């Protein structure tokens, strides 16, 4: 049985994935934004090992979260699930002066990837909307563009794929993959989302825990356990490395080779 850390697991797909993995007998560490959410997370999954708290909109809290994860010892898998959706009507700035959506969806998984001791598997939750993402990587912080929540979200989901694939190239001893769970009726997806909610957490569970030969491979993108078409630039190594360099510059944290 494996030991798995899941960001954003106080509700939604993170909570659902945790529940399935715990039922399978895995040792799960949860994450929540604050203490109230942490209590919700443990109430939903009382057999979890523990729950760690950090606001991923904050660089310092994200760094501290990585330290707390490392104190618990090495994990078999980390599922980067935490995200905010596409409905932010205006650019909200964090205490670090970064767009809120950028900080949570893009920079926090980068920081955690760089600072958490390498697990055997890394899973990044993307979206079919990553295909609408802007691969130019110009104006990541929306300083020149007029804010567009839908575009910012789509960009972030492309960036999650770029991160997953960049790590797959750098760390040959880690299976690093990305997936889209589908458009489902979570708080983020909305009540009218058409895809199966029951099926939505199954691919991340599979990637985190299965011994199938396929999941031990790296640098793939899945939907319902099947590889899917990607943004045309998702496999572009130059773009991946530019993205990594920009995250390093913004965060002050270097992704190890």
Q: Kindly report the average pLDDT value.
A: 94
Strand content: 5-15%
| Sheet/helix structural class | alpha/beta
Uncertain segments:
none
- Tell me, what's the shape? globular
Please trace the helix and strand order, writing H or E for each element: EHEHEHEHEHEHEEH
Summarize the biggest pleated sheet: 8 strands, mixed
Question: Using DSSP, what is the number of strands?
Answer: 8
Strand arrangement across the biggest beta sheet? 3-2-1-4-5-6-7-8
The number of helices is 7
Whole-Å distance between the termini?
28 Å
The rounded Rg comes to: 17 Å
Helix content: 25-40%
Report on this structure.
- The protein is 37% helix and 13% strand.
- The chain contains seven helices and eight strands.
- The chain is α/β, with parallel strands linked by helices.
- The longest helix is centred in the middle third of the chain and has 22 residues, at 149-170.
- It has an eight-stranded mixed beta sheet with strand order 3-2-1-4-5-6-7-8, sandwiched between helices.
- It starts with a strand and ends in a 6-residue tail after the last helix.
- Strand 4, helix 4 and strand 5 form a beta-alpha-beta unit.
- The radius of gyration is 17 Å and the shape is globular.
- The protein has helices spanning 12-23, 35-44, 59-71, 100-115, 149-170, 202-209, 237-251; strands at residues 3-6, 27-32, 50-53, 77-80, 121-125, 175-179, 221-223, 226-227.
């Amino acid at each position: 049985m494996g030991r798995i850390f899941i960001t954003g697991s106080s509700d939604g797909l993170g909570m659902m994935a945790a529940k399935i993995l715990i039922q399978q007998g895995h040792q799960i560490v949860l994450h929540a934004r604050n203490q109230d959410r942490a209590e919700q997370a443990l109430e939903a999954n009382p057999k979890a090992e523990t729950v760690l708290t950090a606001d991923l909109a904050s660089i310092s809290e994200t760094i501290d979260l990585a330290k707390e994860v490392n104190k618990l010892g090495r994990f078999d898998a980390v599922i980067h699930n935490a995200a905010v959706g596409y409905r932010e009507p205006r650019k909200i700035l964090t205490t670090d002066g970064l767009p809120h959506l950028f900080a949570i969806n893009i920079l926090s998984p980068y920081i955690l990837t760089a600072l958490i001791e390498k697990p055997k598997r890394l899973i990044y939750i993307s979206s079919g909307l990553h295909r609408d993402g802007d691969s130019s990587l110009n104006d990541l912080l929306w300083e020149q563009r007029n804010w567009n929540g839908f575009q910012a979200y789509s960009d972030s989901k492309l960036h999650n794929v770029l991160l997953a694939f960049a790590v797959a190239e750098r760390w040959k001893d880690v299976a690093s993959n990305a997936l889209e769970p589908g458009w489902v009726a979570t708080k983020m997806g909305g009540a009218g989302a058409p895809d199966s909610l029951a099926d939505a957490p199954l691919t991340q569970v599979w990637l985190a825990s299965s011994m199938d030969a396929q999941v031990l491979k790296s640098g793939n993108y899945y939907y319902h356990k099947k590889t899917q078409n990607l943004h045309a630039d998702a496999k572009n190594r130059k773009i991946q490395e530019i993205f990594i360099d920009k995250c390093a510059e913004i965060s002050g944290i270097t992704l190890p080779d």
